[in-house]
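Input:
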Amino acid sequence: MNLSSLTSTKATSSNAAAEKFSSLDTLHSTQSNELVSAPVQAILEKTLLGEELNVEDACVLFATQGAEAQAVLDTADKVREKRVGDTGTFVITRNINFTNVCYMGCRFCNFAKEKGDADAEFLTVEQVADKAEEAWARGATEVCIQGGLHPDIGADYYRELIIAVKKRVPEIHIHAFSPFEIWYGCKKGRLEPEVFLTELKALGLGSMPGTAAEILDTEVRKQLTKNKLTTEEWVRIIKAAHSVGVPTTSTIMYGHVDQPIHWANHLALLRDIQKETGGFTEFVPLGFIHYETRLYNDNPDKVRPGPTQDEHFKMHAIARLMLQGHIDNIQASWVKMGPEVATRMLRSGANDLGGTLMNESISRAAGATHGQEVFPEDMVANIQAAGLNAVQRSTKYEVVRTYFVEENNAKTPLTDRIAIRGVA
Ligand code: SF4
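Output:
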């Protein structure tokens, strides 16, 4: 069963929940739509009819404030309901970062260490398999595996890692390796991405995170990563993955040296790729966490300390509007924004709260403070608090289990998580 076929018949108290969330946020504090200008109104009417927004439209919406911004969020909430119903989703997953050793020197990253550093880590493939086995025992349907570009690993490490996990936990979905890691494996193994990805898929790779996208603009990438993985290379690897049947997520990292025009162009590019390949499962906005990064600390006058809360809300809402009909799953990252703000995002365009994670070290290394794990029970409670039906999903957005609002009060406790895996 696919989530898009879910109806809203079981959802209750949506409006009450929306009002509750409305009172909490600066954007949501403006009640009136009377101040919405004709150009903004025209764009919102266009998107409600399902018509495509262009880059200029998106820039107009990113510039909105007050009542106009509220109208953008309300419109995104309506489009979310139209596209995916009154459903909020999450996935039970474990993040496994197999090494933090990396020499790429991305300036927004505080995760990377050098070999020999006291806190350098490098797991063997069997240690990764141990973690996957533990995750499966705790009800995870997925492991998300990523790591630094360690100088000692080559294409074989990526192959062996998939083999080890699949041998130990054959049914778990392996969501692994950013486009940067695939680029690295290809470089080390002198392989074309299609060849390498076909091999990895045959070994058990289920999907890839579309991370390392940052902002798909050359000038911005030069400041973030010295343009080591170019926009063209990111797109090339993503398209290669889709062409061999490996779906990916899509992401943006915003709130540093970027501007709304970069966000709008980025969304348009992702939409173009999706029209061509259909291989994106979701879009995940990732706000820049600045605290411990060289990018911010070396240039505090020029680099912003992450997005404002208003920008978080507008990013999710405008992504919903720009991508509607193409990428209909918009994820709100509790790791970046905290569970409370991520939950409120569910009434401003997002429909997914992402993974429970169990371990998360990349954002934590950059100074994020939102913990390492949200339990499935809390995911369900948060989604229901937003007035939506909670659904545990698979990586590919198939329904694993639905929790209707009427089933609250522990009628369907999550004590049998393992037994219910795979039940639609
Ligand atoms: S973001 Fe990834 S590739 Fe860049 S330095 Fe950090 S670990 Fe390495």
